[in-house]
Amino acid sequence: MTIPPLYRPIGVFDSGVGGLTVLQALRRRLPHRDFYYLGDTARVPYGRKPPQMVVEFAIGIGDFLCGLGVEGLVVACNTASSVALPPLTQRAPVPVWGVIDPGVEAAIRVTRTGSVGVIGTKGTIGSGSYQHRLEARGLRVWSQACPMLVHVVEEGLAESPEAELLVRQYLAGRPEMDALILGCTHYPLLRKVLQKAVGEGVSLVDSAEVTAETVSANFDRPPRTFELGRVVHFVTGDPLAFAHTAAVIGGVDGEIVPLPVAELKAPSSEVLAEPRS
Amino acid sequence: MTIPPLYRPIGVFDSGVGGLTVLQALRRRLPHRDFYYLGDTARVPYGRKPPQMVVEFAIGIGDFLCGLGVEGLVVACNTASSVALPPLTQRAPVPVWGVIDPGVEAAIRVTRTGSVGVIGTKGTIGSGSYQHRLEARGLRVWSQACPMLVHVVEEGLAESPEAELLVRQYLAGRPEMDALILGCTHYPLLRKVLQKAVGEGVSLVDSAEVTAETVSANFDRPPRTFELGRVVHFVTGDPLAFAHTAAVIGGVDGEIVPLPVAELKAPSSEVLAEPRS
């Protein structure tokens, strides 16, 4: 008797719509797998919230998705990956991936001069998560928080004068480098403007793509006879507003389910302080 | 026998935290009155949503606040005031004020040359609501949508290089004028940067202040022996996130009550199309 395999869904979460770029990259590589996507739009943005607050959000979301029986958890948000990956990994009964390590590895692969840059939200850059990892591997790192770039993308202004102005301002102080990590899931949509600002000699490292590459290698691929995978999107804010903003990032393909924030209650801080052994 | 008067609360609503500037201005003038404030943070921003969608949001919110027995309704959001004031006024059993007409009157009072400017969200500027009213009164009007300025304020960057860059860009094409209407409740927080950009010869018209002036003239003031008025804030998104963003605008003084968006269901479009007589 041959028992046909059953595949559990893969959980992906982000503070809002940005992680849809990671989800799209994952689905291109694992088209027959099912996904749960959770966009915490009621509490977006994470980028300038205190780290401990973001940790609590991430733990609550991780518990929720693991409770649905996911086979693995992808933190498709640079801010949450920067501050919440260790506690999430300790807590979750399944493998957990963030977007930082894949981005770091990709930057190491592409740089020839050893000088790289990284841009992201205040939370991501402030945590030093990219910088510490890159420096530990012997690279010279320039970093810059770009708080307005998420909004430029979500306003549908990725190729506008506003985008060009802000990008030029944020990159004005950079030294010589040959790779720039896009440390925020929204930034790949600014690729054109960013490439123009840094010049063709600098490789842009898209963490969404490299994360999907790393993560997908860890999951079995159902045979082609399987139907194309489905996605359920949980949204803590208004579903219509989510779909409206998501249109800027290529839209939503699948069901959108409203999820009250109260369902994502993280355990008390005491429990958070004492990770499960 | 003297019957002591009882004062019903006044309802104020906005898509998010911006209307708190109007609420603050109202409370300075009516310190002993109670207010309900509703911030529709689950569906913010309104500025780039289709007008009919904003009308439905506004009707749902108006019905909710009127159901709580308010004595009057203040639409403290330029986008909603621009597109939803006629249907709201027809529907509500109490007086309704927006922020457009007070801003227009104030601009007419201060201009000497008859040339004025107005800046706002895409929704506000696209509706032409300021421009039509001002032109009907014989003024020359220059207008400009400034979609990024709300985000600059909410990121706490009102006095940053980003703010200066964007303001300079948005105002670059303006002709000679001697008054500029701040057609968005967030913009008064950019007053310093805006005044620097336009020069001291241009009066900035703050609709929050002039709306509060107009509205407060219509309400009885309880005697000083009354306790200071209270505010209940209803928030459709996450209460913590609301308080966090509101801190940028001077914070919240009063209770914050989570309100599911589902409680704000507007009637069907058919009902909307046929206003009550």
Instruction: Spell the H/E element sequence of chain A.
Output: EHEHEHEHEHHEHHEHEHEHEH
CATH topological fold name of the largest domain in chain A: Rossmann fold
**What would the principal axes of the Cα set say about the shape of chain A?**
globular
Helix and strand content put the structural class of chain A at alpha/beta
**Any idea what the radius of gyration of chain A is?**
18 Å
Query: How helical, in percent, are the residues of chain A?
Result: 40-55%
Compute the number of helices of chain A: 12
- Biggest interface, which chains? A-B, 27 and 27 residues
Number of strands of chain A: 10
What profile does the largest beta sheet of chain A have? 6 strands, parallel
Strand content of chain A: 15-25%
Secondary-structure arrangement, i.e. CATH architecture of the largest domain in chain A? 3-Layer(aba) Sandwich
Broad CATH class of the largest domain in chain A: Alpha Beta
Oligomeric composition of the shown chains: homodimer
The number of domains of chain A? 2
Which sequence of strands runs across the widest sheet of chain A?
4-3-1-2-9-10
| Average pLDDT score of chain A | 91
Distance between the termini of chain A: 39 Å
